[in-house]
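Hi P.,

Sorry for the delay on this. The queue was packed all week, but I finally got your sequence through. Input first:
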Amino acid sequence: MVAYFISKTDLLYLSYNKPLWGVQLDILWLNQDDVKAVLDMPSAMDAVEKAFAEHGKKKVQMPPKPYLYFPKHNGDLRTMPAFLEEDDIAGVKIVNVHPENRKKGLPTVMAVFVLNSTETGAPLAIMDATYLTNMRTGAAGGVAAKHLARKDSKVAGFVGGGNQARCQLLGLSESFDLECVKVYTRSSASANSFVSFAEKLLSCDVVVAETISDVCQSDIVVTATPSRNPIVKEEWIAEGTHINAIGADAQGKEELDPLILKRGRVVVDDKLQAFHSGEVNVPLSSGIITEDMICCEIGEVITGLKKGRVSEKDITIFDSTGLAIQDVAVGNLVYRRAIESGIGENLKMF
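Then the structure:
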């Protein structure tokens, strides 16, 4: 009789290299090029609109996103889980916001998204979500303007000309026949890049504005900056204007004069999240506005439970903080299309 002795090292090796459950779990990895290959704005808007509708019907699970703040590096990290009950899809995104990254040749926002099976909890896919984040946020702005802006809106003005501004323009172009696009940004390079993008996308006038005030003379105004102080004054906003307030997505951020919020009809993507980290967070904490001054959530408007714009003279404001349900809806779309197209790389978990 021969005795065999297995060392602790060998045991660990066998444990990690042989599936203990008799199955092999493959995870689909999708890089940014893969995501770009299958994701377009019309499809993203459709997915986001449906997700907002589920949210309006209270058919989602979406705990508030926790933040890790890095004051030393002027950045933060957040996790965003969600479950859409009617579609039976779930996942979580990990995303950062570091404004100083541009100086290092990196995107301000970088993210990864994990799509999970609701049946087993197993990860189905891991994908780059930097592009996905820009697209789903642009889709949210397009959907919100579709439901809140005047139908005859022809002029769109942008405060900020980065990646998010371009995706917001993509979203707006799906719902409006724009005749003029204005942009204001402190960086001439950013302005030129935005103009080049807009001119290729649309057959309309594209103007670099000298001041933020000039941009505000528009039917739809989009603010997409990391500002922590109001940069859009109340007296610059005319009756009938719709505003997509995109930049304020963390505690302490704000782009709009609080008096605009008092004048207008404020629609948020999610009240709990917006009260903590949306455009309304600073005016609420300082007592300038109160929670009962918030009109409703965009999902309630989409489902017809609440009214957004009531008259052509209303000033409407969409306070976008970015919801995990948007990531899950669009991430699932990307995953399904990637499977159909046969793209991506299979990774072994065990």
